[in-house]
Design goal:
heterodimer, A: mainly alpha, Four Helix Bundle (Hemerythrin (Met), subunit A), 6 helices, B: Cytochrome C Oxidase, Chain A, 20 helices, 67% helix, globular, copper (chain B), heme (chain B)
Chain lengths: 203, 649
């Protein structure tokens, strides 16, 4: 921040200010760290996958229909988030806010179904303490779900700022960064869907 | 967790009682002094909320020196207990706690913050920048480190210290075998500090990539900046592993998951693997910046450009890649297949190649140089042979089959002290003394400094060299006592004498800080040693002004300041100043970190309401930050002119 405010008016709004550019680079770097974080969780999941002890296996618990709904909700939310950024490039504040709200509703739906799934498992007697397999299941999915929830809260704050201040280089870079985060969580979910659910249901 | 008050505050141990009383008296004295001299506002406004990378650097170094004292006292207590057979100075439980905290403190709360402090102060100057990419985050990094450190350190007076080793191996560290709050302190203290380290990693990575001054391409950066860049990259990919591992063990201990337990089909070895997937890169996080510091000092005082700059860069990058591929060598004996052991044996030995390249580069840098034997140069010279001893014994340990003999003996203890002390600790001393005039405007006294150097070097070798032989004689690490029949008495006693020599050297070092503050002549120029090569010496005054450079320097090659001096250029003089934009201070990081400490302390004792209240508080501070549109402020041309005119008068 301790540098000139050299503004480049030809770049997209979020890249125009030096601070905006730095923040975006910084956030990409942070996503690198997030990849390491989720990789560790996935590695632990694979290491503990077969350790079900006296508890049930994934095949006995997973339901394809529920997971498909969750997946569609989150994938669609990534699409609507992309449209929101498209609207931002077109300098349409209203469009950004509307598409972001749709994104958040889809995200909240995803979280709702995830909570329902967790509660359902607990009612069936499968908890964090059932076996190492279920411990890491809840921790991996819980970490992802926590990220999505924090994302929802964060984007709500940004929407308030957008409504108040309109599209400026500063608000634009914030919204753009939150969209990077949202897409990243979608990518992680694709891995969870494949490695945890699909592989868990066929084995 | 049901605790009685007499269990909550640790009682009944005279050593801990002494510590409690001295902490109490020390705190009262500090508060009284701040109140008497009316320094509270000054402390808060000028330091605690500062986003200036220079002030944060100094605060990091002060905290690290404090931790060097604490960790050192732990070390001396262990050496006292082991001085003679059947010693009754520490009981076995207390001994377990002391070696656990010694390790954690020295690695996580001494070595890393010391180096991060030097990096904070020096790297922005070396790349010709006015601050880091994210100054707010920089302050938050410091505070999370500080609060994590504080949380870890109060364990020995409130509730009891962790006692499962600095590695916190499961199943020993699970609730079944380590009940009580000790291990929770370990998990939460390191977790909070680790968040700060990750943020430092991102911050300096982006700073070095994006904020270098005009003309400074990657291959024109100083070696210290290069090592910092690569260290930050290692932090970015290694620290999330620790975050996850600590969170998983926390879940086991607090919320009943069964990941690392012996029941519920848990897998304790998973913790061991995860710990070292972080733990081995961590070793390089504390050694690479040290290599950078030695490179700077050796090239400065040999008055030569660093030999084979490109080979240095290539070897740093190679080391960083290999550092992620060797973690299994920490547990060759835990039942891995021969194939796995062979693979990790070879990758481990491979690290000695780029490291050896660097050693030769330092030697060739000095070859035909006109060497000045200043104190920082002495530390750097001593580093080379001592580090080679540590490195060669490391290659011995890398042979998986032979490791069955060395594993968990004093041979290993001696090996890692040889690399970590002669690598990291020597570099911390060398770097601090070398850059001391840059930080405080005067040098440390050279004569006292040389006494410190010799006493420490002799003490270090007297302490740790005998331990190689104790290890070969079969003395296991982490035992609290031994018998006269074991035949380890003589070497142990010698080792203890050496440890106390190092303690003596530290006391003289601290005295030297005071002595130099009182009596050392004040520096007149930015180039205190007269031999500076990089941009940190190009500032207009000995202590850089708040904005570092009135005009950002332009660089054409390696060793830019040396180049400017040869050409007789002073880029800071006779130029048209423009207003300088600087970031504003913020109280949010301090408050947010204290709330993290509050939540962490609650979780240590399973007081979940404290955790929830703390978490809500943290979210509120985040919201405050999100709505903060403070864009910083401008320093006017008049103010710059005034500051520059006053420089060095």
């Amino acid at each position: 921040m301790a540098h000139d405010h050299n503004v480049n008016p030809n770049a997209p709004l979020e890249y125009q200010s030096e601070v905006g550019r730095l923040n975006i680079t910084g956030f990409w770097t942070f996503l690198g760290a997030e990849i390491a974080l989720f990789s560790t969780l996935f590695a632990s999941y694979f290491a503990l996958q077969s350790r079900v002890g006296d508890g049930p296996t994934s095949t006995e618990m997973f339901e394809a229909g529920l997971v498909m709904i969750m997946t569609m909700l989150l994938l669609t939310s990534s699409f609507t988030c992309g449209i929101a950024i498209h609207e931002m490039r077109a300098n349409n504040v209203k469009g950004v806010i509307i598409w972001m709200i749709i994104t958040l509703i889809l995200g909240a739906g995803f979280i709702g179904y995830e909570l329902y799934e967790f509660v359902h498992y607990v009612h069936e007697g499968v908890t964090l303490s059932t076996s190492a397999h279920w411990s890491i299941f809840f921790i991996l999915l819980g970490t992802h779900g926590l990220h999505v929830s924090i994302g929802i809260g964060w984007i709500i704050l940004l929407l308030i700022q957008l409504a108040r201040r309109g599209l400026t280089p500063k608000t634009a870079s914030k919204v753009f960064i939150s969209s990077l985060y949202w897409h990243f969580l979608d990518v992680v979910w694709i891995f969870i869907f494949t490695c945890v659910y699909l592989m868990g249901m066929v084995s | 967790m049901d605790l009685k008050w007499n269990e909550f505050i640790i009682t009944g141990d005279p050593l801990i009682l002494g510590a409690q009383i001295s902490i109490l008296l020390g705190s009262i004295a500090a508060v009284a002094a701040l109140t008497y001299f009316k320094k509270w506002t000054w402390l808060w406004k000028e330091w605690l909320t500062s986003v200036d990378h220079k002030k944060l650097g100094i605060m990091y170094i002060l905290s690290a020196l404090l931790m060097l004292f604490r960790g050192g006292v732990d070390g001396l207590m262990m050496r006292t207990q082991l001085a003679t057979p059947n010693m009754e100075f520490l009981d076995p439980q207390h001994y377990n706690e002391v070696f656990s905290t010694h390790g954690v403190i020295m690695i996580i709360f001494m070595a890393m913050p010391f180096l991060i402090g030097l990096i904070n102060y020096i790297v922005p100057l070396q790349i010709g920048a006015r601050d880091v990419a994210f100054p707010f985050l920089n302050n938050l990094s410091f505070w999370t480190f500080f609060v994590g450190m504080a949380l870890f350190n109060i364990s020995f007076i409130i509730g009891g210290s962790p006692d499962a080793g600095w590695t916190g191996y499961t199943p020993l560290a699970t609730n079944d075998f380590s009940p009580g709050p000790g291990q929770n302190y370990y998990l939460l203290g390191i977790q909070i500090a680790g968040i700060g380290t990750l943020m430092t990693g991102i911050n300096f990575f982006v700073t070095i990539l994006k904020m270098r001054t005009k003309g400074m391409t990657l291959m024109k950066m100083s070696m210290f900046t290069w090592t910092t860049l690569i260290t930050m990259l290692i932090i970015i990919f290694a620290f999330p592993v620790l975050t996850v591992a600590l969170a998983m063990q926390t879940f086991d201990r607090l919320f009943g998951s069964v990941l690392f337990t012996l029941h519920g089909d848990g897998n304790p070895m998973l913790w061991v693997n995860l710990f070292w997937v972080w733990g081995h890169p961590e070793v390089y996080i504390v050694i690479l910046p040290a290599f950078g510091i030695f490179s700077e000092i050796i090239s400065t005082f040999a008055r030569k450009q660093l030999f084979a700059y490109k080979a240095m860069v290539v070897s740093i990058v190679t080391i960083s890649v290999l550092s992620f591929l060797v973690w299994v060598h920490h547990f060759f004996t835990m039942g891995n297949s021969a194939e796995a052991n062979s693979f990790f044996s070879i990758t481990t030995m491979a690290i000695s190649i780029p490291t050896g390249v660097k050693i030769f580069n330092w030697l060739f840098t000095m070859y035909r140089g006109r060497i000045t034997f200043t104190t920082p140069m002495l530390w750097s010279l001593a580093f080379i042979p001592n580090f080679v001893i540590g490195g060669v014994t490391g290659v011995m340990l890398a042979m998986a089959a032979a490791d069955y003999q060395y594993h968990n003996t004093y041979f290993l203890v001696s090996h890692f002290h040889y690399v970590l002390i002669s690598g990291t600790v020597f570099a911390c001393f060398a770097g601090l003394i070398y850059w001391y005039p840059k930080m405080f405007g005067h040098k440390m006294n050279e004569k006292i400094g040389k006494w410190v150097f010799w006493i420490f070097i002799i003490g270090f070798n007297v302490c740790f060299f005998p331990q190689y032989f104790l290890g070969l004689d079969g003395m296991p690490r982490r035992i609290s006592t031994y018998l006269p029949e074991d035949g380890w008495t003589g070497l142990n006693f010698i080792s203890t004498v050496g440890a106390f020599l190092m303690g003596l050297a530290f006391i003289i070092f601290v005295y030297n800080i005071y002595y130099s503050w009182r009596y050392a002549p004040r520096e007149k120029t930015g180039d205190a040693w007269g031999l500076g090569r990089n941009l940190e010496w190009a500032t207009s005054s000995s202590i850089p002004p708040h904005y570092n450079f009135a005009v950002l320097p332009e660089v054409t090659g390696l060793d830019p300041y040396w180049d400017m001096k040869e050409k007789g250029l002073d880029q800071q003089k006779n130029v048209d100043y423009k207003p300088i934009h600087m970031p504003s201070n913020s109280a949010v990081p301090a408050i947010m970190s204290v709330l993290m400490g509050f939540a962490g302390f609650g979780l240590v004792f399973h007081w979940y309401w404290m955790g929830i209240v703390g978490a809500i508080g943290i979210f509120i501070t985040m919201i405050v930050r999100s709505f903060d549109y403070n864009d910083g402020y401008y320093i006017s041309v008049e103010e710059i002119k005034e500051t520059e005119a006053k420089a060095n008068k």
